[in-house]
Design goal:
monooxygenase
């Protein structure tokens, strides 16, 4: 059962919107390789507003993802792509349908 997750808010630098969008689309194969990450979404809210929403069965899987290749690549390119540091929020499910 999926009980744990992450919501990562990302704001693109002006002129870097397409680059951030391409980065997120390019991260999909990395997410697919993570057996402990059954749910992974990269979403766009507006021209500069993006997020990653993912979910995990265990807190250990969530920790592994935070220490995995997507997070490492994001932090490596954060200064280039983001206007502000990523906002990483951990969430624990209270009810699931």
């Amino acid at each position: 059962m999926i009980k744990f997750g992450l919501y990562v808010r990302l704001e693109a630098k002006a002129g870097k919107e397409a680059d951030l969008e391409a980065f997120l689309q390019g991260a999909l194969p990395l997410a697919q390789e993570e057996t402990g990450t059954p749910v992974w979404y990269a979403v766009k809210f507006g021209p500069q507003s993006f997020a990653i929403f993912d979910a995990f069965a265990t807190d250990e899987d969530r920790g592994a993802h935070l220490n995995g290749p997507i997070a490492a690549a994001l932090m490596q390119h954060a200064d280039e792509l983001l206007s502000t540091p990523p906002v990483i929020e951990r969430w624990d499910a209270l009810a699931v349908k």
